[in-house]
Structure formats: structure tokens, C-alpha cells
Specification:
There is one protein chain. The protein has 233 residues and is of the alpha/beta class. The protein has a single domain, classed as Spore Coat Polysaccharide Biosynthesis Protein SpsA, Chain A (Alpha-Beta Complex). It has 10 helices and 7 strands. Strands 3-2-1-4-6-5-7 form a 7-stranded mixed beta sheet, sandwiched between helices. Helix 1 links the parallel strand 1 and strand 2. The longest helix is centred in the middle third of the chain and has 17 residues.
Amino acid sequence: MKNKGYPSLAVVVPVLNEGKVLPSALKSLQGLAVDELIFVDGGSKDNTVKLIQDAGFVCLACPEGEAGRAKQMNLGTINTKSDIILYLHIDTAISSSNISNIKKTYNQGSLSGRFNISLSNKSVTYRIVSFFVNIRSCLTKVSTGDQGIFVSREAYEAVGGIPDIALMEDVAFTKKLRKLGKVACLKDVLVTSSRRWEKFGVFKTVYLMWKLKFLFWVGVSPDKLAKMYKEAR
């Protein structure tokens, strides 16, 4: 049952070889007003796990050979008890006021939702990309992980958790969630790193992601898409 008025919230953060960004990210998470915060490592080869544990956070590890973002997110979820679960990328910044707004929209009947994003690079090109990501996701009610997807535990369980697929698990998950009921498109803006866009080129990244989403929509297997994604990188 919903805990009206005082819902609890857990943050699940999947990580993999994030030693470079963790020091600053962990500092920002130290004072976050949440009931549970859990990291799930996907087999890091650097100092990711040590940094997380040294900062006083819980860090679970997927069994060897069973890594993958969907597995990480599901493992984190089943190890929490809160009414709401927020899936957060380590390079996306969030505040306690954002958390309060998630709880507010939950009490207003939303079963799931996401935030608007702003890429960290402030050039016009990146602002345009952010704008269209926000418009597209609000119109379709389908979101990607860097938008801070959140879900009620009832909704998570109703759809059978996050689809255990090699790529597009966030898209597949939110497609299932939108069938259940109200999806909140919060106007809060989360700043998310533009590092992958900068590394591979903004237009190449946009093209690749739209291509993969189209192929997923027409039925190409996630395993094949994951291979295409890896080769393109």
C-alpha cells in the first residue's frame, strides 16, 4: 500500500569503472535526503568499489558473469524496501528538493516518472539536444536512464521489474510502465554529464541513439543492438 504523506525513497546507482567521476559525485550524494542509497557494481576493474565503500555507502556486486545495467538495477531494487525507487546515473546530479518533488508527485497518484535534463556542456548544440530529449520523452512517456527514472514499488513489481536485456532496458522498462497509469514529467532539471557526447561527437551520438531506438522498435534483438553499440564506440 502507498504510504501517503511520508513515502520512503531509495536511490539505486549502477556503476562500472567510474573511479574518475566518483570523488565529486560521492560528495554531492553525502547529504541527499533519502531513506536508502545503494550502489551496484557491474564488475569494475578500477577503484570504483573501494571509493564507494570508503565513503560509507553500500555497494553490492553482481555475481561474476552476470553483469549488465538491468541486472544491477534489479539487484539494487530487491535489496531495498522503500515505497519509491529512483534509478540514478553516477554522472547525473540530483538534489534533496528533487527528491521531495518525486514524493509529491507520488502522493498525487503518479506510478512512475522522470526529470528534464540539461547536458553539462552549455553550448547551443547541447542545449538543443537537451530540449528535444525532454520534449520527446514527455510526449511518448518513454525515458532514458540519464533522466532519473523513478517508479513506485507496486508498479515495478507489476511489470516484473526491469527487462533483463543487453541494451535499451530503460526504454523497454518505461514502455511497460506507461501502460499502468500516470507518468510524471517533472519540470525539474537534472544536469547530466555530456562526456559521452563530447567524446564521440554530438551528431554521431544522436544518430547512433536514434538508429538503435528505431531498430529496437522494429524488433531487432537487444543482443544485436548491444553489439552494434559496442562496435560504434
